[in-house]
Specification:
single chain; 255 residues; alpha/beta; Stationary-phase Survival Protein Sure Homolog, Chain: A; nine-stranded mixed beta sheet; globular
């Protein structure tokens, strides 16, 4: 099995290294990741300027390709230029911080997995709750268990999954919950400040998560200490609205 591994924290991130070691039990791992941290860039791509990349090493050990671009760029180049053939699996992570709820829409980690799914490759994003002393090795073991469970179920080519691991799940016997993504709104506040020259600027605040919902979601399951697995789809079409909008005549262009 050929696995393309990427992230949005940069090629030297500890979460990437831990997940690479774990994934090598499944097959050959090719690393193509941003050269610097790209958190929160979503599905940005580079197309107005040339995209550069170079192989990087840690002593004699080859780390992989460092791409001077976004996580989606790293996957595009990884599949198109660096992998000897189309990979069997794309994995993005381990991200330093959860990617649950509406953060999925902003996440470079998830966007990299979406890019893999675009290519028709089964893709998985893996994120760990932020901690200054995060146990990435244990998180990689949990992530590997989830990925092996997914592959055993033989998902369709191009399937897309989002995995989140709370800190509480790193000890004991964690439980996995297959849950939908929460769409509750949060993280909208800004604090107005003044710089030394008297100019105003705004800093996004770290709002707390929304209050618990009666419906189980990735946010509620993570709050309960469970590992979460969410199948995703990048097709944003609101299909129920198509027939409604198509009813009756439309008068456009003066006709």
């Amino acid at each position: 099995m050929l696995i393309l591994l990427t992230n949005d924290d940069g090629i030297f991130a500890p979460g990437l290294a831990a997940l690479e070691r774990a994934l090598r039990r499944l097959g050959d791992v090719q690393v193509s990741a941003p050269s610097t941290e790209q958190s929160g860039v979503g599905h940005a791509i580079t197309f107005l300027t040339p995209l550069t990349a170079k192989e990087v090493f840690d002593g004699d050990r080859r780390r992989g390709w460092a791409v001077d671009g976004s996580p989606a760029d790293a996957v595009k180049l990884g599949i198109s230029a660096f992998c000897p053939q189309r990979p069997d699996l794309v994995v993005s992570g381990i991200n330093s911080g959860l990617n649950a709820g509406i953060n999925v829409l902003y996440s470079g980690t998830v966007a990299a997995a979406v890019e893999g799914a675009f290519f028709g490759v089964t893709s998985v994003a893996v994120s760990l709750e932020w901690d200054d002393h995060a146990d990435y090795e244990r998180a990689a073991e949990i992530g590997l268990d989830v990925i092996e469970g997914l592959l055993a179920r033989r998902p369709a080519r191009g399937s897309l999954f989002n995995v989140n691991i709370p800190t509480r799940a790193l000890s004991g016997s964690p439980r996995l919950r297959v849950v939908p993504m929460s769409t509750a709104r949060y993280g909208e506040a800004f604090e107005r400040r003044t710089d030394p020259r008297g100019r105003a600027y705004w800093w996004a605040t770290n709002d707390p998560p929304p209050p618990p919902s009666p419906q189980e979601s990735d946010v509620t399951a993570l709050a309960a200490g469970h590992v979460t697995l969410t199948p995703l789809d990048y097709d944003l079409t609101h299909r129920a609205a198509i027939d409604v909008l198509a009813e009756g005549p439309w008068h456009i262009g003066g006709s």
